[in-house]
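Internal QA ticket QA-208
Title: Verify multi-chain structure generation after dependency bump
Assignee: T.L.

Test input:
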Amino acid sequence: MSSRDNILKVVLQNQPAERALPVIDIPVTTTHAEWVEALKTRLDILHVDVREVADYSAIKAILQQQAVPQERSVTTLAALGDVSTYIETVKEDAHSLEDVDWAIIPAHFGVAENGAMWVTESLIQYRVLPFITQQLAIVVNRKDTVYNMHQAYERIAGTNYDFGVFIAGPSKTADIEQSLVLGAHGPKGMTLFLMG
Amino acid sequence: MNSTITNHADAAIQFNLDEPRVDWHDKTLWFIREKRDLASHAIPEWEQLREYASQIKNNVLSNLSQYLQEFEENAIANGVIVHWAADAAEHNQIVHSILKKHQIDRMVKSKSMLTEECGLNEYLEQNGIEVIDTDLGERIVQLAKEPPSHIVLPCIHWKKEEIGELFHKHLGTDKGASDPKYLTAAAREHLRETFLTRRAALTGVNFAVAETGEFVVSTNEGNADMGAHLADVHIACMGIEKIIPKQQHLGVFLRLLARSATGQPITTYSSHFKKPQPHQEVHIVLVDNGRSVHLGKEDFRNSLKCIRCAACMNTCPVYRRSGGHSYHNAVAGPIGSILTPNFDMRANKDLPFASTLCGSCSNVCPVKIDIHDQLYKWRQVLMKEGLGPTTKNASMKMMGWVLSKPSLYNISGKAARLVLKYSPFVVSNKLNPWYKQREMPAPPKESFKEWYKKNRSN
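Actual output:
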């Protein structure tokens, strides 16, 4: 008998009598405006630089102001193509992104309770992009804010993605004596453009 | 994988030789426990979430064979290659055969307690394959040729000056440098080069969703993603109990996991791997290694609900003052003490006794495992099997004899009070294990029985 069949046989023999799944019901009583405030507060704690902007032209103005000529900036947002190199599809080996200084990407929505942004492969083209870049900027619409992770998965349910990730701030570690250091392996810093 | 001393009490004695260091270790972990409290208290529905998580995991255990098949079917439909391993040896062979097929002799790895359990690194090294652990804490202990001492914080027992010394030797950092920022930056440079040059990456799995065939990996550093996305071959290894039924259940577990572990509302990255990238192979290895048999033990099966947050370790007064290595297993602390005897009762017979049974572990457990009850039940099993500590056997027999004879009991009590009063050195000496790190209490003048007789009339 293969290991597979044997494992499944023993598991079936030993698994206890049926226990029912719970119905998850966590009511949210707060308003959308409060969620946005909670999101901003949380991002602040996560060392994310939050910029509230009206539209893409406001983002462009900020990016142009911050731009350093020697730095490599890429974006997967066509609307920002004149201030950053637009990546439309995957054309090269992902390793070619190793010298990216800035990556500007969109997110589907943000989660107020933990500051996490839901990003899927179709929004970033290269899976490694939000990790390999030195600095990450995420653009999300203010209206696309949910309060908690239950609402988040309600939004995700039924959507198609090959790879998806919640990103909550810059990469970090506290492995050395519990001292927080930003920029473990991924971005050293993160900006969030809250649009609309 | 195992440290040299395989008895918790003996290893704890060694750990306690350096008292200021033990105090530091204790305080560091308590600080994390306090952060967990703050995070959990900020969620009004916390207890409800724990209850949901517990019920979901109970459902998983009661349908595990069906969920495993559902997961396999969906993962295969997603283009993932699924393997099944009966034990550690088969797991290691599977990983090795995948690497051999691709002629790969260097691999990066993110945190996976399962591969620690299976001794994968040693096995691959013996077969000429270099494995580099990429989680900073894991890299530190790997450079030091030590196993992790904590499942979430692998080098919690290391001081920054010692890490500075280690990095000076291995990574060429400045001698005497101990600034965490500087040391982390050095590790970042060293590991970035590694990520960019390795064709295979191995990751653990936090949750595998039966409904969708996807698996979720949580990290703060981004090391799992840097490895997996840049590699031609991604191997994900998981114990069979890591399955959850539906995608929506991730909402419950991701709310609980990081808050319980470090007090963060979520880890920086919660990556959902569903389909391989073009030209990439993704393998999942489903590992039993004793779990299917463990599932059949009614008193002990629900320790398989564990999501490896380590809250029980951070809160445990024994773990905090004896260190992770004293548990001589990949998973230490209270949860390790009830998991490991299922796999090898004799080798881990000491661990259920490494507890005060205070119950704090059960109180913080996000999936409501009855940890301290199981510790107690394991003690009963071990005593029946004749595997209890020998000193305990003798003293328990003596105690039983004294307690069965009331007159003898009265005399013994009186004698003990007199001894404590007039000759405290008889008990306050190094031969008495209760005197270690403790002062003996002042003896009462009389026993409760004597006091009661005197005062009953009032």
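Spot checks passed. The longest helix of chain B spans residues 19-41.
Status: verified.
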